[in-house]
Amino acid sequence: MALLASTKTNRPTAETLWIGIGIVVAYGVVPLAGSDYLLDAVLTPFLVLALAAVGLNVLTGYAGQVSLGSAAFLAVGAYAAYNLHLRVPGLPLLVDVVLAGGIAAAIGIVFGLPSLRLRGFYLAVSTLAAQFFVQWALTKFGWFSNDNPSGVIDAPVLRIGSVSFATAAERYVFSLTIVVVLTLLTLRLLRSQSGRNFIAVRDHEIAAKVIGVPLLRTKLLAFGISSFLIGVAGVLWAFAYLRTVEPAGFNLDRSFQILFIIIIGGLASLRGSFIGAAFIVVFPLLLSRIGAAVLGRVFDSGVLEMSQHIVIGALIIVFLIAEPRGLIALWDRAWSALRPARRPAIPT
Amino acid sequence: MFDYQFLIEVLIGGLLSGVMYSLVAIGFVLIYKTSGVLNFAQGAMLLFAALTFVSLVERGTPFAAALAATLAIMIVLGIAVERTVLRPLVNQPPITLFMATLGLSYVIEGAAQLLWGTQVHGLDIGISDTPFDVAGVLISRLDLFAAAVAGGLVALFALFFRYTRTGLSFRAVADDQFAALAVGLRLPRVWGAVWAVAGIVALVGGLSWGARLGVQFSLSLVVLKALPVLVLGGFDSIAGAIVGGLLVGAIEKLAEVYVGPFFGGGIEVWAAYVVALGFLLIRPSGLFGQKLVERV
Amino acid sequence: MSGIATGAGVLRLEEEPPDEQIHGSTRERDNATERRTERAAQTLANPALGLAKISLTFGGVAALRDVDLEVAQGEIRAVIGPNGAGKSSLLNIVSGLYRPTRGQVQFGEHSFDQVPTARLAAHGVARTFQNLALFKGLSVLDNVQMGLAHRMRAGFLRQIMGAPLARRIEEENRTAAKEVIGFLHLDDVHDRFAGTLPYGVQKRVELARALVARPKLLLLDEPFAGVTFAEKQELSQHVRNARDSLGATIVLIEHDIGVVMGLSDRVAVLDYGRKIADGTPDQVRADPAVIDAYLGVAHEDATELAV
Questions:
Q1: Does residue B153 have a pLDDT over 60?
Q2: Secondary structure element (H or E) that encloses residue A258, with its range
Q3: With a cut of 0.90, is the ipTM above it?
Q4: Cα dist. A316→A25, A50, A276 in Å?
Q5: Is residue B240 in some structural domain?
Q6: How far is A288 from chain B (nearest CA, A)?
Q7: Does residue C179 contact residue C6 with C-beta atoms inside 8 Å?
Q8: Which of residues 16-75 of A touch C (CB under 8 A)?
Q9: How many whole angstroms separate alpha carbon C78 and alpha carbon C280?
Q10: Tens of each residue's pLDDT in chain C, 307 residues
Q11: For C133, which of A128, B187, B201, C129 could close a Cys bridge (C-beta 3.0–4.6 Å)?
Q12: Where is the protein localized (chain B) (predicted)?
């Protein structure tokens, strides 16, 4: 909290208050009150996807570099942490996590190098190379998965010192802590000169260059930070959420899913990443309940998956057309409508 | 002793499958050239076309009628997409349009499979897949047929662009949107027509690919094969799409056969991307793409 | 840097000596007319900006042909010309966005075949753009502070952690940005997103972003295009202030010949990529070649130009 309090911003302290309340509820109430199903199947994946979305948002929402290869960095994080744990015994878990993020960042920077010359979807296409290459390498080389024939890895029990995080609630708390800390650090980065450089490069690259923003360093920083965050999300995905993963789980659809989270939630908004992740996690559950209730047996898993595709795809289009700033903009509007007295007068 | 005959066989096989990539890439180029949209949903449209056709045939519709019906459906789909998705997004940054087509691909894929089911269908277009022998080199009939179809399609487009009013207006719009607008071309109408044509290209591509792979979900993934083709050839050049397709086809097969063994195989999935990426760094606008001078 | 700028920042700044010591700047503040004649005659060994035999071709089409230009320290120098005369290309060469086919660009004692754009700010050069180039997603204050981005020497980790160095530079930059915002009367809108402001105000924000680094050389690309008459008046006052109180040498590109005549010390005229005239506003106004370029061949009524 000291970190946040010392940020010099002109945002109202109400925001800090809300974050504080959120943290208290997330730590104090949820782990006690939530069922294992809620924690395991809803909240933990929500947190992990939100962190991945925060990572992609740094790159795409703030720095304006579109990536279709997020899942590759999830995979790198997961497999790096697995191998570090396996091959460097005695390394504390948190060091594992940070190193795994670092490895993802390094690979992200390598695949970010073309961004100096490529823009828009040329760059997007080049990030697909990361997607396919990483997935292939993890399947092909048995070393990564300790010679499991299909590349499957089983996560170890999370343990920091003598404290282990084994139950659903414990794994949730573990994920929550990492996600909150990293999100707050990201927030600070975005409000620093480096964060402004991201937006400058996104909004007008040439002007940024003329002003003296170091383009290559700024873009690579965005790729590095983004891949770091996504890599750590990958560790959580493998260690805290699924606990058994295979390369096929980090396919292009996963990359798209993360991209969709930030489009639906809100580009260039960290809160949007969380709302978007919540939506992506909750929506299929809702859809299957509603579908089953309305259509009964016809609504099998195949139909569910297809209708999910249709609705998500349609939502992407609708948001891009009607509210490019995503759910978070709707949220803010609803919020200020609820308490019109507090709405600031529009300056001239 | 190096086996040249085998090399030639691999090369021809690669070039022929490259033609198939070109078939998909042409659909992209048409839309990109005229409206600046990189249509990620082209693969989904291909799947939709093939699935619709096969399902109609399986339900007892005669071949020709099914073809005509699918054609009509694809044209309507193309126009509908332009109306509902692209038109409201006119003047948005290209990357927004691209993301919209990403959403669109989910919608079309989902709809196709919801309508027609997810099972794999065989597609028999009356060409046997037995290879025949030309001077000791084995060539797939199906590939050759697809190559012929692609060649015919390109020739047809060339004629269409040169001799028809619509074709001329396509070229005008591609050349300079504002000028085209100024001389009274109705851009939305042209765009609608382009999307309809892209629908037709998707049908041709869908049938060729469907005959080869069977009609199933993975058909929509051929879009991923077309992207490096576009990067190599340039997003806005039909000639580029053809040459790029041939190159990617050849590179993939040669890499798989001669380089793959060193890595345990399977490098087909990314070889084309890596080559395209390397190429991009040298020539960011592709082989035939227009080089843009940045204006400030 | 003395004092924190508030609403009264303008006055303060005008009295403040410029960051960089421009030689002879006090002497040059005397009389405008005198100064003009003096400068026109001057050929300086160390011009603020020198262009030597600049040519630029785009695929066989010559955009600029053998253009020479000399800009003295502390002068306001206009480059005018009809559309397509090559003015913007010239500015893009000076800022390193284009590489000239032939010729050299000189800042002070440094000479370049292609100006390194990334080092432009470090050389004390700033520019604005013809079509606004603000960062739409940043507030006005942040936009202006971006003009000092090159001064942030602390790495990103120190920025995240709020290390003393990072905080000190951040404070300095913010203070400087606020000062310039006061100077250009932008206080009311400092927290608005730049993209939401009226065109004329955005132009001023861009000027502020260029001025915040106290550039030795300021390049303005059509600063008066598309703004109202009142805004033109105000903007030219700001441009004059930038020279008089901040000590910047100014090169401005303009399509509209009228505005620049009263503002500039010397004017160069481009037409079809060639420099066809160069001199004081009065000399240029009377030049038959200029009249031809602007009004078509052999126009009788030259008074139209004397706006």
A1: yes
A2: helix A252-265
A3: no
A4: 31, 18, 11
A5: no
A6: 15
A7: no
A8: none
A9: 10
A10: 333 333 333 333 333 334 443 344 444 444 444 444 444 444 455 789 999 999 999 877 889 999 999 999 999 999 998 888 889 999 999 999 999 999 999 988 889 999 999 999 999 999 999 888 999 999 999 999 999 999 998 999 999 999 999 999 999 999 999 999 999 999 999 999 999 999 999 999 999 999 999 999 999 999 988 888 898 989 999 999 999 988 999 999 988 778 888 899 999 999 989 999 999 999 998 888 888 877 665 444 444 444 3
A11: C129
A12: Cell membrane
Minimum-distance CB partner of A193 among C119, C122, C152? C152
Is B244:B236 a contact under the CB 8 Å cutoff?
A: no
C177 close to C147: Cβ distance less than 8 angstroms = yes
Backbone angles phi, psi at C153, to 5 degrees: -95, -10
Nearest C-alpha of chain A: how many angstroms from B267? Answer: 8
Q: Does C150 touch chain A (CB under 8 A)?
A: yes
Q: 3-class SS at A159?
A: strand
Q: Is B103 on the interface with A (CB under 8 A)?
A: yes
Asked if C164 contacts C192 with a C-beta cutoff of 8 angstroms, the reply is no
The Cα A246–Cα A238 span in angstroms is 9
Chain B residue numbers with beta carbons less than 8 Å from the beta carbon of C221 are 296
Q: Which domain holds residue B153?
A: 4-220
In a domain, A9, yes or no: no
B120 in A contact zone (CB under 8 Å): no
- Closest-CA distance, B269 to chain A, in angstroms, reads 6
User: What is the nearest CA distance from B294 to chain C, expressed in angstroms?
Assistant: 9
Rounded CA-CA distance C113/C107 in Å is 12
Q: Identify whether A43 is part of a domain.
A: yes
Instruction: Note whether B270 and A138 are within 8 A (CB).
Output: no
- Residues A274-293: b if buried by 16+ CB within 10 A, e if exposed: bbbbbbbbeebeebbeebee
For tokens 């790159």, the residue is: A59
Inside any domain, residue B39:
yes
Note the Cα B106 to chain centre separation in Å. 18
By percentage, how much of chain A surpasses pLDDT 70?
93
Domain assignment of residue A171, given as a range: 14-250
Number of domains in chain A: 1
Query: Residue B292 — very low, low, confident or very high, per pLDDT cuts 50/70/90?
Result: low
CA C100 to chain centroid, in Å, comes to 20
Q: For residue A163, tell me if it sits in a domain.
A: yes
Q: In the numeric block, which tokens belong to residue C303?
A: 């008074």
Token code pair at residue B256: 């798989």
Task: Give the CA radius of gyration of chain A.
Answer: 20
Chain B partners within 8 Å of C61 (Cβ): none
Name which residue leads in pLDDT, B289 or C110: C110
In angstroms, the CA A39 to CA A230 distance is 21
Residue B123 lies in a domain: yes
Contacts of B215 (CB under 8 A, 6+ apart): B47, B50, B51, B54, B120, B121, B122, B123, B206
Sign of CA pseudo-dihedral C95, C96, C97, C100? positive
B272-288 per-position pLDDT tens digit: 888 888 887 787 777 77
Residue B11: inside a domain: yes
C9-15+46-295 is a CATH 3.40.50.300 domain:
yes
Give yes or no for a contact between C64 and C90, defined as CB atoms under 8 angstroms apart.
yes
Instruction: Please state the three-class secondary structure of C184-216 as a single string.
Output: CCCHHHCCCEHHHCCHHHHHHHHHHHHHCCCCC
Q: Do C97 and A206 touch (CB under 8 A)?
A: yes
Chains touching C, CB cut-off 8 Å, 3+ pairs: A, B
